[in-house]
């Protein structure tokens, strides 16, 4: 038994992760349900390093040095449970089972408890960066016990992406914390992508600019505060020409965005926790709207627009407004995502360091961006920061763009261009900073029809008004 780490599940992600371990000098046990994938890994990439292939799970387990460290990289869901069921009888106390697939965090919490009862460590870990990241350095978000991280940390940090020499990997928190944070990462990714798509649409509708021209604007933006992987690939996609028709590639792609479910999970959890993540929610719903074919067919050409025709007079000023509005909306989406992490951390006792999360997202993952440094700095300044937007850097940065944000959202509304994420983010911004919200009226209505009580602005206590009789006020506590 000489392998230092094992990988079972050798489709694109598992194969690349196994190669990444091997390239860093680890002896890697490899296994896959159908042996063909294991054989093709050895045939195609055997010279990447030291692999120990096994056809059976028993031989795979036997090839690993103890405590065994086994990464499962199979299709999330039933396949993960099937692999765990096959593995557990073969393992011994103290062995570490790592699920690196995109599991839903409640499943990870369940599996962790089950394996703990067998004396095994179960580590649900987020891995971001797609196949390219898995091979060359992903962002890694491991949950599970502190003890398991003592074994895994050095290996995972070694194969993770590095930014300024700092690994994009840290212990996130107990049981499902790693998968939770990966889920919110994906939710933020949804918001980021939607905001970029809205900026593209604004530039297209407002300026009548071509895809290639807009691509140049994004390339320019990528040299400033907005510098990020998603802005960079947006510029590349917009510059691409369809080889079949010679048209701009984006213009021949059908406008229906699909989803695999992590955005939906993020929103569902936010509803459970009562955290307003409007940016992520709007982004998730915007994908759903794009795919609502019968509804769109019924509405196109039928619903009245009564919109003006867009007449942008100052091109450069408009582009700068869109840039500022994009940045401000993006800060809101991240601020909301970090609120959700804080709420879940409190709910599940994970004690997640939010600054560290921003740090490990700086490289390897899809939302990697220059401005994540700013988030880390904000949480270093104030570890218990109640609202990322209220950090001094972000207050100033967003404050600087508020006028532009208002111009863009109002012009978009007047011209009939949908900007669900831009406008809901601005509404959140105005909502959270409002001295007084109209929730007073809602609470009064609730007391009226359901005797749900209310509190007063002028003294402590819980009150109810006898709405159906003499409207006298009673103090409940
Ligand atoms: P897939 O999600 O396509 O899963 C294919 C793998 O699952 C194969 O190894 C397959 O074995 C195995 N498998 C299945 Br399906 N059912 C099984 C079962 N009952 N027992 C044992 N093995 C089973 O692979 P992937 O795209 O490499 O993704 C792996 C994980 O990584 C997923 O959870 C995914 O969500 C996550 N992830 C993917 C990306 C990405 O960019 N693709 C990024 C981040 C995370 P077989 O060869 O015998 O059929």
From TrEMBL:
Superkingdom of origin: Bacteria
Family matches, as Pfam families: 6PGD, NAD_binding_2
PROSITE patterns documented for this protein: 6PGD
GO molecular function: NADP binding; phosphogluconate dehydrogenase (decarboxylating) activity
InterPro entries tied to this protein: 6-PGluconate_DH-like_C_sf, 6PGD_dom2, 6PGDH_C, 6PGDH_Gnd/GntZ, 6PGDH_NADP-bd, 6PGdom_BS, NAD(P)-bd_dom_sf, Pgluconate_DH
Role summary: Catalyzes the oxidative decarboxylation of 6-phosphogluconate to ribulose 5-phosphate and CO(2), with concomitant reduction of NADP to NADPH.
Catalysed reaction, written as an equation: 6-phospho-D-gluconate + NADP(+) = D-ribulose 5-phosphate + CO2 + NADPH
Pathway(s) per entry: Carbohydrate degradation; pentose phosphate pathway; D-ribulose 5-phosphate from D-glucose 6-phosphate (oxidative stage): step 3/3
Active site (UniProt): 182 (proton acceptor), 189 (proton donor)
Subunit structure: Homodimer.
GO terms of biological process kind: D-gluconate metabolic process; pentose-phosphate shunt
Keywords: Gluconate utilization, NADP, Oxidoreductase, Pentose shunt
Residues annotated to bind substrate: 102, 128-130, 185-186, 190, 260, 287, 446, 452
Residue stretches making up the 6-phosphogluconate dehydrogenase C-terminal domain: 178-468
Enzyme Commission number(s) of this protein: 1.1.1.44
Descriptive protein name: 6-phosphogluconate dehydrogenase, decarboxylating
Family affiliation: Belongs to the 6-phosphogluconate dehydrogenase family.
EC top class named in words: oxidoreductase
Positions annotated to bind NADP(+): 9-14, 32-34, 74-76, 102
């Amino acid at each position: 038994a000489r392998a230092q780490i094992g990988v079972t599940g050798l489709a694109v992600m598992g194969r690349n992760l196994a190669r990444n371990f091997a390239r860093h000098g680890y002896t890697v046990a490899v296994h896959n349900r159908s042996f063909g994938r294991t054989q093709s890994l050895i045939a195609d990439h055997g010279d990447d390093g030291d692999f120990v292939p096994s056809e059976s799970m028993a031989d795979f387990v036997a090839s690993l040095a103890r405590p065994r460290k086994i990464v499962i990289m199979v299709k999330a869901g039933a396949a993960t449970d099937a692999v765990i069921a096959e593995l557990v009888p073969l393992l011994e106390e103290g062995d570490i089972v790592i699920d690196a697939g995109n599991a839903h965090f409640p499943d990870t919490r369940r599996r962790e408890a089950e394996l703990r009862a067998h004396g095994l460590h179960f580590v649900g870990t987020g891995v971001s960066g797609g196949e390219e990241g898995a091979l060359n350095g992903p962002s890694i978000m491991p949950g599970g016990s502190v003890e398991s991280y003592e074994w895994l940390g050095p290996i995972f940090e070694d194969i993770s992406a590095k930014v300024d020499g700092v690994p994009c990997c840290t212990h996130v928190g107990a049981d499902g914390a790693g998968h939770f944070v990966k889920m919110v990462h994906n939710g933020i990714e949804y918001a980021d992508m939607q905001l970029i798509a809205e900026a593209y649409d604004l530039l297209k509708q407002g300026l009548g600019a071509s895809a290639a021209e807009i691509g140049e604007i994004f390339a320019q933006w990528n040299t400033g505060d907005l510098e990020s992987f998603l802005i960079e690939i947006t510029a590349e996609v917009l510059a691409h020409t369809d080889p079949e028709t010679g048209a701009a590639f984006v213009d021949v792609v059908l406008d229906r965005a699909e989803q695999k479910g992590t955005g939906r999970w993020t929103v569902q959890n936010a509803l459970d926790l009562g955290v307003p993540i409007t940016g992520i929610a709007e982004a998730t719903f915007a994908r759903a709207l794009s795919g609502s074919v019968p509804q769109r067919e019924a509405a196109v050409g039928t619903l009245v627009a009564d919109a003006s025709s867009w007449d942008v007079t100052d091109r450069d000023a408009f582009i700068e407004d869109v840039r500022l509005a994009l940045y401000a909306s993006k800060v809101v989406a991240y601020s909301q995502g970090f609120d959700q992490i804080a709420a879940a951390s409190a709910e599940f006792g994970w004690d997640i360091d939010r600054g560290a999360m921003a740090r490990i997202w700086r490289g390897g993952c899809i939302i990697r961006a220059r401005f994540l440094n700013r988030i880390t700095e904000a949480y270093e300044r104030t570890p218990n920061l109640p609202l990322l937007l209220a950090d001094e850097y972000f207050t100033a940065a967003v404050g600087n763009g508020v006028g532009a944000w208002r111009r863009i959202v109002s012009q978009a509304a007047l011209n009939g261009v949908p900007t669900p994420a831009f406008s809901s983010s601005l509404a959140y911004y105005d909502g959270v900073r409002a001295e007084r919200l109209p929730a007073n009226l809602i609470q009064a209505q609730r007391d009226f029809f359901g005797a749900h009580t209310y509190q007063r602005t002028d003294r402590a206590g819980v009150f109810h008004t006898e709405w159906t009789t003499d409207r006298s006020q009673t103090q409940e506590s």
